[in-house]
Structures are given as C-alpha cells and as structure tokens.
Amino acid sequence: MSVKVDIGSDQLTFSVQGIDKLLTFTGSISVPWEHISSVCKAPEINRKDIGVKLVGAGIPGLIRAGRYSGKDGLAFWDVRDYDKALMFELHDERYARLFIQVEDPEETLSRINDALSKKKT
Q: What are the residue ranges spanned by the domains of the chain?
C-alpha cells in the first residue's frame, strides 16, 4: 500500500494508508519544508544496512514498515516495492530518514522538487 503525500504551503504530510497504519504504528508524519535536506528515488537502498527494527513489521522481500534505528539515526519505513520508494533525508526532526512508497515516484518526486525549489527562492 502506498503512502499519500500532501504538499502543503509550509510542510509535507505523509499519510499512511490501510493496514500499514497498524504495521507502522503511525497514521501520519508531517515535516516542515525547511527540515528536508534531500529527496531521491530509493530503489538502490542497501537492504542489509537498514538498522534494527524498533517497532513495526519486517519480512524480508515482502515489507519493511515501522521505526528502525541505524548508524544514521532513527528511520521510518513503509516500503513493499523498492522501485516505488522515495528517501527523504531530514534534519532537526525525530527521524533522520523516511523511506516511503508512493504510487508514482517520478511524479511525486517532481512535485516535491518543484515545491522545494520554490521554497528556496
């Protein structure tokens, strides 16, 4: 199941859908634009270096959902299909990284990068 991404004027909101709310123990995450360092497609994630699952579900090859603690800090995951995943690098937030599966990663990434570029000008 994909995460719904709402692009607001002052923040991005990630709404976890369906059963994934139970698997991740999360309904939504909101991040102010100024706390987003970078966003990229994430199909080449090193799947062996994701850290230790703290809360959530993790079945290799099927789903990674919830909170994980890794060498870069706390990360939130909701990914079943790595080809549809985006990685958000954050600062001054609870999570250092978000790994989010979206329906159309190219379109979502384009919309987010457009909004980010407008925030920087």
A: 4-120
Cα–Cα distance list, 48 to 16, 45, 61 (Å) = 24, 9, 12
Q: According to the model, what pLDDT value does residue 14 have?
A: 97
- Helices (H), strands (E): how many in the chain? 2, 9
Asked if 103 and 2 count as a contact pair (C-beta separation under 8 A), the reply is: yes
Q: What pLDDT is recorded for position 38? A: 92
13 burial (CB, 10 Å; 0-12 / 13-18 / 19+) is middle
Cα(107)–Cα(26) distance, integer angstroms? 24
Six-digit token string for 98: 């978000």
Q: What is the pLDDT of residue 58?
A: 84
Please list the ranges in the chain whose pLDDT falls under 70. Answer: 1, 43-49, 120-121
* Contact assessment for residue 90 and residue 43, using Cβ atoms and an 8 Å cutoff: no
**Whole-number pLDDT of residue 49:** 64
Fold of 4-120: PH-domain like (2.30.29)
